[in-house]
Design a protein that fits this description.
mainly beta; 7-stranded mixed beta sheet; 2 helices
Length: 520
């Protein structure tokens, strides 16, 4: 199936040294903070500012498009403060997704159909190679939401610096029976063989999450289908939906309107209640405009995730230049709103690859049947890096201080289950900082991997306050936000560790230091 890229495009500096040791004890629910939303960020602290993950010089990010050789990142941005509020669509461009040039905001509140905010949306390339943006506008203080469009003022401008919001907006308003304050984030449109464009918009009906489907022949007049494209009980509001095809015949990405061939579809939703995302893989029945997940995809809060850590409001786009689909996501700050103001930004250096081997799985702990009621994150909290085991815990201690008063472990633990082994991967921020204010959770996911060769690989990207880790070649991904006070700059170290009774060998360990990208 198609390989999807994550929010990562350049690697920066490795702090400290790599050491090996054993037995180491080591409703519209966007919360508007009115007291901070217009506070100018003047106390700029760069200590935890990311280097190679895209981050504006100040404030809050999310949103993407490839057009005529240029990558465009549109991201929600508060020009007057570091927390959520006063939202406009900021705009940066790049030819390589490494070096970025910021432009003036593309969309900002200025008309009755978006006077209280310009929220998330998507870009579509129309026939004639003409881009168009669909976005959610907020029309009143009750946060009534409508779907608007914007188009470039000059298609010949390679950077598409200026965007126009025509007066025939909004294109889509909430129909009778649709909750107008829970009606947002239109997707990239796809073209059907019946001559209709289609989009979906996230919403909920009581506690049933759903995406409404709309059709249009001319992209201007939209009609709601009689039934949602898909829904699921007890999942709450579905934000930032994404719906796209994937090929079962290879790793080449597919343009959003591709339907024929050996194709499945992915439906991803961001859950307003949990602040996590999940996705399913299934079949899109175009005649009925229905999406049905495969029976191997859990369609609930316990569903598959792109990333089992601090990762939200993701969006894919098709890169026609390289025939691939790119995934962007937002790794939000986990410290306080007051500290976000002091930093001057909110939203987001090393690249380390290691392969661990073990001679036997005989010492793997038995998977206790009572743990089946836990999710991976609960099990990680129960079986942390300092709890001795059989095969594991083993992995990396990232952003570690010399005395281990601060460290963020990323590790595996192997259990003996019924008929197969169970691999748990954790990224635990519990000991990441001596500062008690930030949210310091332990994130985790299970890794679906064949252990016949008795190997496990781990890649961790360490970028100041971001630790982004990929287990078993990316089968499980976890992003953590951490804010060390001691393990910073030259005082941050990296260790490999094993706290299990089975011998673990570091077969290979490679670390890279990279030049800092340009973010003007």
């Amino acid at each position: 199936m198609e390989a999807t890229g994550f929010l990562l495009w350049v690697i920066l500096v490795l702090y400290g040294t790599a050491l090996i040791f054993n037995d180491a004890g080591v409703e519209a629910s966007h919360k508007v903070r009115t007291e901070f939303e217009s506070v100018e960020a003047v106390q700029v602290q760069q200590l935890h500012r990311t280097g190679f993950h895209f981050q504006p010089k100040r404030h809050w990010i999310n949103g993407p498009m490839y057009y005529n050789g240029i990558y465009h990142l549109f991201y929600q941005y508060n020009p007057k403060g570091a927390v959520w509020g006063n939202i406009v669509w900021a705009h940066s461009v790049s030819t390589d997704m490494i070096n970025w040039t910021p432009l003036d905001p593309a969309i900002y509140p200025s008309k009755p159909f978006d006077q209280y905010g310009c929220w998330s949306g998507s870009a579509t390339i129309l026939p004639g190679n003409k881009p168009i943006i669909l976005y959610t506008g907020i029309v009143d203080q009750h946060q009534t939401q409508v779907q608007n469009y914007a188009i470039p003022a000059d298609y010949s401008d390679p950077y598409l610096r200026e965007w126009v919001k025509p007066d025939n907006n909004p294109l889509v308003s909430a129909d009778v029976g649709v909750n107008g304050s829970a009606f947002r984030d239109p997707t990239t449109a796809w073209w059907g063989k019946d001559g209709h464009w289609r989009i979906v918009v996230g919403s909920r009906r009581r506690q049933r999450g759903l995406v409404y489907l709309y059709r249009s022949r001319d992209f201007m007049k939209w009609t709601k289908a009689q039934h949602p494209l898909h829904s699921s009980a007890r999942t709450g509001m579905w934000e930032c939906p994404d719906f796209y095809p994937v090929s079962l015949d290879g790793e080449t990405g597919l343009e959003t309107s591709v339907i024929d061939g050996n194709v499945r579809h992915v439906l991803k939703v961001s859950l307003d209640v949990t602040r996590y995302e999940y996705y399913t893989i299934g079949t899109y029945f175009r005649e009925k405009d229905r999406y049905v997940p495969d029976n191997t995809s859990v369609d609930s809060w316990a569903g598959l995730r792109y990333d089992y850590g601090n990762f939200y409001a993701s969006k894919t786009f098709y890169d026609a230049g390289k025939s691939r689909r790119i995934l962007w996501g937002w790794s939000n700050e986990s410290d306080t709103a007051q500290e976000d103001v002091q930093k001057g930004w909110a939203g987001v250096q090393a690249d380390v690859e290691v392969t661990f081997t073990f001679p036997s799985l005989d010492k793997a702990e038995k998977f206790d049947p009572s743990w089946a009621a836990m999710d991976a994150q609960q099990l990680c909290s129960h079986k942390g890096s300092t709890i001795k085991g059989g095969v594991g815990p083993f992995g990396l201690l990232t952003l570690a201080s010399k005395d281990l008063s601060e460290y963020t472990p990323v590790f595996f633990r192997v259990f003996r289950g019924e008929g197969k082994h169970v691999v748990l991967m954790c990224s635990d921020a519990t000991s990441s900082s001596l500062n008690e204010k930030p949210y310091k959770p332990s994130f985790a996911g299970f890794v679906d991997v064949d252990l016949t060769d008795k190997k496990l690989s781990l890649r961790s990207l360490i970028d100041h306050s971001v630790v982004e880790s990929f287990g078993a070649g990316g089968k499980t991904c976890i992003t953590s936000r951490v804010y060390p006070t001691v393990a910073v700059s030259k005082d941050a170290r990296l260790f490999a560790f094993n706290n299990g009774t089975e011998k673990i060998t570091v077969e290979s360990l490679n670390a890279w230091s990279m030049a800092k990208p340009r973010m003007n």
